[in-house]
Amino acid sequence: MKKQILTAVIILFAASSLPAQDKYFTKSGKIVFSSKTSMENIEAHNKSVTCVLDTKTGNMQFALLMKGFEFEKALMQEHFNENYAESHKFPKAEFKGQVINNNEISYTKDGNYTAKVKGKLTIHGETKEVETQGTITVKGGRIETDAVFHVTLADYKIEIPALVKDNISKTVSVTIDCTLDLLKS
Amino acid sequence: MRMAKYILTVCLLMIAGHMLYAQEEDLLKLVGGEEKPQKQYVDYAFKSSRVIMSHSMEVIRPGVMDMRILHRFGNVNRGAYEFFGLDNASMRLGFDFGITKNLMAGIGRSTNKKELDGFIKYRLIHQAKGPGAMPFSFLLVGGSSMTLLKWADTSRKNFFTSRIGYYGQAIIGRKFSEGFSLQFMPTIVHRNLVATQNDPHDLLAMGAGARLKLSKRISLNVDYYYRLNPNPEDGTQNPLSVGFDIETGGHVFQLHFTNAAGMNEKVFLLETTNKWEKGDIQFGFNISRSFQVKKKKK
Fold it and tell me: I need a surface site. Which of A33, A56, A173, B34 has the fewest CB within 10 A?
């Protein structure tokens, strides 16, 4: 009898030590990048960004397929894939990082929070440390993440030939807009 | 005693479990990465919609207008007096339009024989990877050309249809790797009016086109036709073109050497008389400039 009780207690303990439901994710996040020069404005949209956030640890990861970027002009898209991003060689871009001020955000309460995010961004096979500030909005059990940051193309060994250097900005701005739902494990 | 051991084991297990959990995990793996395998079409087998003289397995995107200016100079072996052929040029001005993802059409006007030509190209099979993969692309091209020259012999009855020729072509192509693409083009050319009884109304030819990428923006292209039933007496030759595609931002330049006469299927398959082995080749260059006529919705 004693043994049975003990077993029950242990099972309860074990259950409580299982990961709680504190991970949020999406597979249809949006990332837009834009390059603005006096000659030409270029904008590309990717609507199938994967983002996972562990609210407990503040770990945050993004991943997308470079081929998923859609441009207004077909030729831009071709050049992006063929010449600049070389999507066949480097199909993915990834970010792995952390919300540094995770303890300041209460994910159970609706509201707007400023999030400082730091981590490693991999584009075109090159990995660089990035840090930015964004917003985390908790609303009705969902989490929205918004951020804007800048990427210097040369950091990721993306070369712009002299002929079009007036058309493509050396630094492009990246806008993130993801709405995360609870990950049911 | 047995009990104590039991508790100890369970405690150890729980600690081990916690340690595992504390390890940094790859969150993306939790959601199965971002890729569920998808059908991916293989694109950009050629830099433009032509190998050199022939249609390539590429279809220009919907909403794109491709202005193509083709030049062929005189024979290179004419020497310095003719500036190695550059003193004489013939050209074709053409406009191609991307209509849907798999359909394009174009028109053109050549100085050679004052010919007007047009074509429609449709892709039935698109090479793809992943689920539903296809090892090759398959396209059909139908075209027509019409000479606008004045009749050479006005004493006989000339029919309007005599001005016209047609061609039909199938393209079977594969992009083997990022650097290498190969296609075959069985082709039939029909002329309503032929010069002699020996001339076939329907000429059959087998073409081959290939691209070898030398760098991100430069490739080596070869384009050749073997004709199955040419008129053996008129001295016409199988056309062969060899050249480079150079891409610069919005333009594609095709610089090449060729023995082909003219710049549409009927002319280069039926009227090529220059011989490569004699050095009767011409320098040519094509300029392709794409314009986005209709913008994609965001």
Answer: A56
Which pLDDT does position B293 carry in this prediction?
87
Phi and psi angles of residue A116, each rounded to the nearest 5 degrees, phi first: -100, 125
> What is chain B's mean pLDDT, rounded?
87
Mean pLDDT of A151-170: 88
DSSP B151: P
Say if the Cβ atoms of A48 and B34 lie within 8 Å.
yes
Please indicate, yes or no, if residue A5 is contained in any of the structural domains.
no
A156: Cα separation from own chain's centroid? 17
Q: Which two tokens stand for residue B250?
A: 């919005």
> Looking at residue A154, what DSSP letter applies?
G
Angle in degrees, CA B227, B73, B237, rounded to 5: 15
Half-sphere exposure of B282 (CA within 13 A, CB side): 25
Which residue of chain B is at minimal alpha-carbon distance from A53? B27
Report the CATH number that the domain containing residue A123 is assigned in CATH.
2.40.128.110
User: B228-250: per-residue pLDDT in tens?
Assistant: 999 888 889 999 999 999 988 77
Q: Is the residue at A98 inside a domain?
A: yes
Separation CA A96–CA B29 (nearest Å): 12
Are the C-beta atoms of residues B110 and B76 closer than 8 Å to each other? Answer: no
Of B123 and B31, more confident = B123
Beta bridge partners, A149, equal A174
In B126-238, which ranges are E strands? 128-129, 137-147, 164-175, 180-191, 202-213, 218-227
Of all residues in chain B, the one with the smallest CA distance to A14 is B14
Q: B40-247 has which CATH code? A: 2.40.160
Does A74 contact B63 at a Cβ distance shorter than 8 Å? yes
Whole-prediction pTM value?
A: 0.80
Residue A13 in any domain: the answer is: no
B296–A72 CB contact, under 8 Å: yes
Give B250's contacts in chain A (Cβ within 8 Å).
Answer: 75
* Residue A3 burial (10 A CB sphere; 0-12, 13-18, 19+): exposed
Give which of B258, B236, B245, B253 is closest to B85, Cα–Cα.
B258
Q: Domain tally for chain A?
A: 1
**Ordered DSSP codes for A5-56:** HHHHHHHHHHHHTSPPS-EEEEEEEEEEEEEE-SS-EEEEEEEEEEEEEETT
